């Protein structure tokens, strides 16, 4: 049994067999074989080694012919490793004496070799680990043949272990079979983490290297509440976590009873709870939890899910679906926020993509793309209570430019006789410190505001939200971030401009009292958090929250603020503090 500490990004517990995702993810179908099947399994192993050897030899010949013998030598080295008698003896022993299936034996033995290479402090030898992975893949491909199970065609539950997952890879994980995932890299605010929450599967990121310690088919526990990953757990630990998963389920069921009740504080102040979505199919998660509306529809995921650039109709169809399922409840649609860790932008090559051409900057630079989206938004505005929001606005000029493009598109539609809501509410995200510092001017030019604490924390603290190495610095609880949030809420309140918080912070119940105490009355959260946030709202009074806020704002660092808030929540709702 081995424990790894990572960063908890999506809550819950998953216990399942590992599927290791490399370029290809193979699922080891079974770990053990029956005693009387051993001879047959060893023959299969022989066949696979022979077939893999022929493949490598063919590659060696082709590469030597085209590029010269010195390049073909890479494959000669692979052949030598594959045919190494010591490896063969080790595999035979595992199958014969431990009754491992050949697939499991290959994975275990070769990963152990790779780990040794990786641990040697020499760039050249560490690189050899990749050759070992290559041989492992080739052997597995031959052993599994048609029975090979890839991520796209899973037939039984797994937990996915990967070095990294992009947001779109994460979004494509099958909810029916993928019970959770762990990545070696990644930070707390990455979009991969956000998508995991949307999928409602436990996830841990930023564990550091561990993939050589685990083989496909090994049992793994993912503790998404504490950021823990347990490899090859013992029976006692499995029982403990199964019990915890059961408790989580019953807590969620208890919270579900709040569905029809309003989010109203104990002293009668109504709070609005909206959901955040990335894809139209997530709307039902909001409706099922009794959301007051959608507070953040991240439309850039339309781009991440398609091979081709979505045209006006693709945008329109997606927006219509969301609006029709929301049946008149408000939907805040955010224009594309591509770039940075949400790939597919010219910014990919930039040295510092988070500070480069992302989000509204990209839309304003690429007007045809922006106009296509705005046309679809305006057409869809006839179908429900649609509101438009611009992301990552950093200057007044930028906001005005975006509004001018919108006015221009409106004119085009008028000329074409296409109906739309001429009074479409227009708002902006407050997620760059400059926007907070200029908030008194921004409030004069928008219908509503939404604080994006994920980016606001990243830009305030100059700490990449997707980088595990600065994860300790990246925190929405940092006093500097809290001051900015409070300043934005108070100014908006003063001018009666509606404001909400839609970053991950608002879905974390330890912050609910703090935000209420700052004057926030609208939260937009991951749908699965709605019941918990509602429970806190219904338990507290505003005066109680104000006093918590006052004390929290006097604490000087993020860790102590979080500890204090956790303790305060524990006093009133201990069952919510895991
Ligand atoms: C934010 O930055 O807080 C936010 C909600 O936007 P995103 O996470 O999509 O960047
Ligand atoms: Mg953002």
What's the SSE blueprint?
Blueprint: E1 2-5, E2 7-10, E3 13-21, E4 25-26, H1 38-67, H2 69-82, H3 85-98, H4 102-119, H5 123-144, E5 158-162, H6 167-171, E6 178-183, H7 191-199, E7 203-205, E8 219-223, E9 228-231, H8 235-256, E10 272-277, H9 283-288, E11 293-298, H10 301-304, H11 312-326, E12 331-334, H12 359-365, H13 367-380, E13 386-390, H14 396-416, E14 426-430, H15 433-437, H16 439-442, E15 448-451, H17 453-461, H18 479-494, E16 499-501, H19 512-518, E17 522-525, H20 530-539, H21 542-553, H22 558-572
Parallel strand pairs: 3-5, 5-6, 6-7, 10-11, 10-17, 11-12, 12-13, 13-14, 14-15, 15-16
Antiparallel strand pairs: 1-9, 2-7, 3-4, 3-8, 8-9
Helix pairs in contact: 1-2, 1-5, 3-4, 4-5, 11-13, 13-14, 19-21
This protein binds phosphoenolpyruvate and magnesium ion (MG).
Description:
This protein is α/β, with parallel strands linked by helices and 578 residues long. The protein folds into 3 domains: 2-26 and 149-251, Glucose Oxidase, domain 1; 35-143, PtsI, HPr-binding domain (Enzyme I, Chain A, domain 2, Orthogonal Bundle), CATH 1.10.274; 270-576, Alpha-Beta Barrel (TIM Barrel), CATH 3.20.20. It has 22 helices and 17 strands. Strands 1, 2, 3, 4, 5, 6, 7, 8 and 9 form a 9-stranded mixed sheet that branches. Helix 3 crosses helix 4 (102-119) and helix 11 (312-326) packs parallel to helix 13. The structure holds phosphoenolpyruvate (PEP) and magnesium ion. Magnesium ion is lined by residues 391, 431, 452, 454-455.
